[in-house]
Amino acid sequence: MADLSRRSFLEHTLMTAAAGLAAAKVAQGAAKSQAPGDGTSEPKTETTEKVAKADRTRIAVIGLHGRGTDGHIAGFINDDRLEIVALCDVDTSQFKRAQSKLAEKGRPVAKTYQDLRQLLDDKDVQAVSVATPNHWHTLAGVWAMQAGKDVYVEKPVSHNVSEGRRLEQARVKYDRICQAGTQSRSNRATAEAIKYIQDGNIGKVSLARGLCYKRRKTIGHFDDSAAPATLAYDTWLGPAPKRPFNKNRFLYEWHWNWDYGNGDIGNQGVHQMDIARWALGKDLPTGSVGIGGRFGYKDDGQTPNTLLTCYDYGDAKLLFEVRGLETKGLAAGEGKNGKPSLLLVGDIIYGTEGFVAIGSDYGTAVAFDKEGKQVKAFKGSGSHFNNFISAVRSHKQEELHCPVLEGHYSAALCHLGNISYRMGAQEQFDPQPKEVAENTDLAEAYKRYEDHLKENMVAIEKTTQSVGPKLEFDPKSETFGSNSQANAYLTRDYRTPFVVPAQV
Question: Per-residue pLDDT averaged across 157-180, rounded?
Answer without folding.
Answer: 98
